[in-house]
Amino acid sequence: MLIRARTIKSGSGSGKAVVCSCPLSLLGGIDTATGKIQDGECESKGLSVAGRVLCFPFGKGSTVGSYALYQLKLNKKAPSAIINESAEPIIATGAIISDIPMVDGVDISLLRTGDSLFVNAEDGSVDLPDVVERHVVTNIVRNKGRILLLLRSSRVGSYRGLWAGVSGFIEPGESEDAAARREMGEEIGGGKVKLLRKIEPQRFRDSDTVWCVHPFLFEMPERTIRIDWEHEAFEWVAPKDVSRYPTVPGLQQVVYKLLGE
Amino acid sequence: MMHLSRDEERTLAGEEGHGRQKAMELLVALGDIYGAKRLIPIASAQVSGASFKTIGDAGILFLEDFSQKAKVSVRASLNPLGLDLRRWRSMGVENEFHSKQARIVRAYSALGTEPLYTCTPYLAGNRPRKGQHVAWAESSATVFANSYLGAMTNKEGGPSALAAAIIGKTAEYGLHLPENRRPELRIDIESIPDGLFPIAGYVVGKVAGKRIPHITGLDLSPDEHKAFGAAMAAAGAVSMYGYSNPRHTRGVNTSEVEETISLPASELTECANSLGGDAEWDLVALGCPHCSPAELRSMARYLERRRPRRSSDVWFCTSRHAYARCPKEVAVLKKFGKVLCDTCMVVAPIERMYNRTASDSGKAMVYLPTLGKQRASFRPTRALLEAISC
Fold it and tell me: Over the stretch B187-196, which tens digit does the pLDDT of each residue have?
């Protein structure tokens, strides 16, 4: 999987990812002698950043943090590259004075500690060769304020026994809109539906797959549907109750994004 | 992405050497982060990160390496060091700290920065004019430049101010753009009790956070603005304020601000009391920001008919520039304590010398407990002068 990114410090670097999902202070957050993360809030506490790709949302704390990166470099404990969600001056300054390739604009929640990463800060990309991105559509179907959840059957290839929207892979050469319409026909028997909204794709990581979900919102005049072999039950639920159901990854966020705005 | 001129592209490609390339990389990265469209020339820079205490061993090694590859191209003055270059022994600074500080001084001198060693460059010759773009680090100087002098600067970090000094330019974003200099919050100050203008700044900084406040009823001398703004910038993330008073309105339209807050005098007194700390101190530290010649004169005038009490050590912190202009006053103050140049209680290794420090500075109330590991006590200037004399 290739992720586009913005170059902050040019160069390239690769290695296993060390991911910290909270903001990191470099002054005190990393031991400059050993390269080990010592910030108590970081789930990667105790891991060394030396020669790894350090991934975290953004820096916080003292401006002296820039020099802490430089000290890591002098001690040969520096990360081989840095990935941020949104760069701020402390980390950017540190990366530049320490010659550490750095990019930002990457959704850190898609990365896992231990991923193999190739950061190309020359053309602005991050490659995850062991991770595959799959494009799917997820249709949220609404009737009188309730939305349709489908229980995935034991015969489908993934996420059996979990609740989902009307969803499926986008076939090669097919547009998202066509895929959305096709799945409506296959999974719930089509019917009179009206497309209300389509939002930008949402990405979710699940083991070695990043699901790139293209969300659609449809309005349906009645609640009668016909399900096929892919599902064994359906329910019309209030959007706020989605969190009570065991669902496929990210469904709650898709519902929130589609309806919340 | 920023648009760069052909010359700027050449610098970025490294055709003018590695040092200028790194400086340009830094300016471009910051410009991109903040959405700047271009670089603009600056009249001067103020570089922070001069004390060994704040930049550490890594800072020394970076500066030593960088100083062999680059030189500043515009006027660039330097922030206070961790010691008085002449009286460091009597201050109580250890040899090792001194030798590391000396390496920093040598590196900056090779880079070509002006050895003012003060947070008040505007009182020592580096005083931008209204409307001029500068790249200043040092939060207290930045807020004074933007608010009192009417110059235009963001609050730079040490390395970015140095990079701007080397290239002679900075990225055009934030407070360099007139549309970002409008007040977002109005604060009506009823009146400021005697000597509590640093506390007023402290409270305004806490209230304003990241917003630019416009303060009505603010009638301060230039030196009072210096202390007021310093406290505000330290207590909040404020790099600029507007103000008006009956004599001086500046014609600012505050009708579009999102919020108006009135600050009664009682709140300032309460804040001063809450920062009151201890009744006894190891050190009384005056001069944060550095004392101006006028402040040295005023303190000497009060103290010249009194005798030292010697209940604690006393530091009067000032710039070498102000020190040289006030020999008589300095002689008076020296009877009561040390008159220190090149340094101050915030960036000197005070934690190795004292535990309890009193100061008249709102900025020091932010940094003494953190950077200085002190039990800090606020008192108005006059109260401290009374306490150290009889």
Answer: 999 899 999 9
Given this model, what pLDDT does residue B248 score? 65
Regarding whether A217 and A144 lie in a shared domain, the answer is yes
Q: Provide the CATH topology of domain B182-273.
A: Aconitase; Domain 2 (3.40.1060)
Provide the pLDDT confidence category of residue B233 given band limits of 50, 70 and 90. very high
User: In the CATH scheme, what is the code of domain B6-178?
Assistant: 3.30.499.10
Least confident of A218-222, B150-154, B160-164, B250-254: B250-254
Query: A14 and A8 in contact (C-beta within 8 Å)?
Result: no
**How many Å separate Cα A208 from the centre of its chain?**
12
Last residue of a domain, one of A107, A127, A147: A127
Phi and psi of A135, rounded to 5°? -95, 125
Does residue A90 belong to the interface with chain B, where contact is any CB pair within 8 Å? yes
Active site residue A80: no
Q: Provide the ipTM.
A: 0.79
Beta carbons of B55 and A64 less than 8 Å apart = yes
CATH 3.30.70.20 fits domain B276-387? no
Could you tell me the pTM of the whole model?
0.86
| A10 chain-B contacts, CB cut-off 8 A | 25
Query: B125: phi > 0 → left, psi -120 to 50 → alpha, else beta; which?
Result: left
Domains in chain B: boundaries: 6-178, 182-273, 276-387
